[in-house]
Amino acid sequence: MTISLEKARQMVAETRAKARTMGLKPLSVVVLDAGGHVLAFEREDGASPGRFEIARGKAYGAVMLGMPGSAQMARAEAQAYFMAAVNGAYGGKVIPVPGGVLVKDVAGEVIGAVGVTGDSSENDAEAALAGIAAAGFEGAA
Amino acid sequence: MTISLEKARQMVAETRAKARTMGLKPLSVVVLDAGGHVLAFEREDGASPGRFEIARGKAYGAVMLGMPGSAQMARAEAQAYFMAAVNGAYGGKVIPVPGGVLVKDVAGEVIGAVGVTGDSSENDAEAALAGIAAAGFEGAA
Amino acid sequence: MTISLEKARQMVAETRAKARTMGLKPLSVVVLDAGGHVLAFEREDGASPGRFEIARGKAYGAVMLGMPGSAQMARAEAQAYFMAAVNGAYGGKVIPVPGGVLVKDVAGEVIGAVGVTGDSSENDAEAALAGIAAAGFEGAA
Amino acid sequence: MTISLEKARQMVAETRAKARTMGLKPLSVVVLDAGGHVLAFEREDGASPGRFEIARGKAYGAVMLGMPGSAQMARAEAQAYFMAAVNGAYGGKVIPVPGGVLVKDVAGEVIGAVGVTGDSSENDAEAALAGIAAAGFEGAA
């Protein structure tokens, strides 16, 4: 199963809606496909200019390693040089903190990831999970 | 003047709407700000996975050089090594063909760029121009 | 609002003037626009040759993340792998220590950053703040 | 002999003054030292954001190869793959066209380079030559 653009846009919209109810700072939200490639992205007014790279980095590491941001962070805390090496292997595109959330279909297969940045990493992840659920998928943060 | 997310989304939506009336292949559309940083992106169903980089590359060169895609292409046709060198200087992020369209405000100042890829470069540019105009800005293709 | 070259030059000159009154070592001072692109730079006699990259790195991270150098340093102290990953995502251009100072207009909007290197990071930041204030802007160090 | 910051600033100012008398478009002007490292840079109002990289690229190739922009262009016209390979070896930092002008002292030794971009390559070079001469050095364009 693949994520349609309609579903990707829905995840972005619902993540942003959740962030508003939570009162978060301006967010940037990306949706990647199962190959780690960009499907959709939006950067809210007031976010700093470099947020695309951070959002993508969170989601990219999740898809490429099959590990959500929290698991990547745990590994980085235990073995910083390993995640640094992973980053080198992936061209510097991995940001190993919460806010990179795997998207799974009903069969439990990874079909992409959502990356969120702008507030605390934990709030970023919570908003992403809500957006993924609203689109009928399962999130792993 | 800066491009709000609302205006960026409008340019993406109207570019895609124009493409439908033209009967184009699946498009990918990016909007960059005046510093070349991503504001919004959408990749239509059926587009190949690497389209974000192409769309951004068209728009990025336009912003950074202040030259729309057609002018970049003319320079590349006349002096291929110059555009190759520019690409090196900008970290390999420039795609010098039509479909990279400058966005100007009413005062004529460049406030960003739209990058479109998926159909012929000329059709990509035509769709982008329509999207930019629909959002109340001036396009330079 | 954008930073004119005249204002950028004034910030460089006033930062250097402040450094002289403080008795600092030879400084290098860069001014970036709101997209992280270079507006003006000067390297004082006696400074080592690689100072442009350090000055720009301090200012670049500030603009791209919307976080002054002190906040980046705090994050690097708490989570070194995060700032290392950010650096990868931004092409290795980030130096996360004081001396990268955000420039804000009267409305509080970030319009660029000043990066200073040559003395202690704290002195670098103090000189930058003085230069920014002298030009009529608000600095966040 | 090395280029002092005072002399570097003088070359920038005189290059810009010459451009005004010639009626050129907004210029960006960089001065590099004998090691190819940045001493001073200014980007005039109205220039596109990516001009630092182009100005530096012109001057960098000149210093690193000991060949002014016109000689680099001649080589690129004759053997594009050679200049492309040079660019790879120098990290993508070379722009092999006029506007990269060597700065020599009275003994004929290369002590740095000026890089100018914004108008035609030939006009860029002419302005740089005037700026170098006004500072008491010899230019080779």
Number of helices of chain A: 5
Stated plainly, the CATH topology of chain A is called Beta-Lactamase
The succession of helices and strands of chain A, N to C, reads: HEEHHHEEHE
Oligomer: homotetramer
Widest beta sheet: strand line-up of chain A: 2-1-4-3-5
Largest sheet of chain A: 5 strands, antiparallel
Q: From the alpha-carbon coordinates, what is the Rg of chain A to the nearest angstrom?
A: 13 Å
So what's the CATH class of chain A?
A: Alpha Beta
Structural class of chain A: alpha+beta
Task: Characterize the structure shown.
The structure is a homotetramer of 141-residue chains. Chain A has 141 residues and is an alpha+beta fold. The first copy, chain A, has a single domain, classed as Beta-Lactamase, CATH 3.30.450. Chain A is 48% helix and 20% strand. Chain A has 5 helices and 5 strands; from the N terminus they run αββαααββαβ. The first copy, chain A, has helices at residues 5-22, 51-65, 69-78, 80-89, 121-134, and strands at 28-33, 38-43, 100-104, 110-117, 138-140. A 5-stranded antiparallel β-sheet of chain A has the order 2-1-4-3-5, with helices on both faces. In chain A, strand 1 (28-33) and strand 2 form a beta hairpin. In chain A, helix 1 crosses helix 5. Chain A is globular and about 35 Å long. Chains in contact: A-B, A-C, B-C, B-D, C-D. The interface between A and C is medium-sized, with 22 and 22 residues.
Brief synopsis:
Four copies of one chain form a homotetramer. With 141 residues, chain A is an alpha+beta fold.
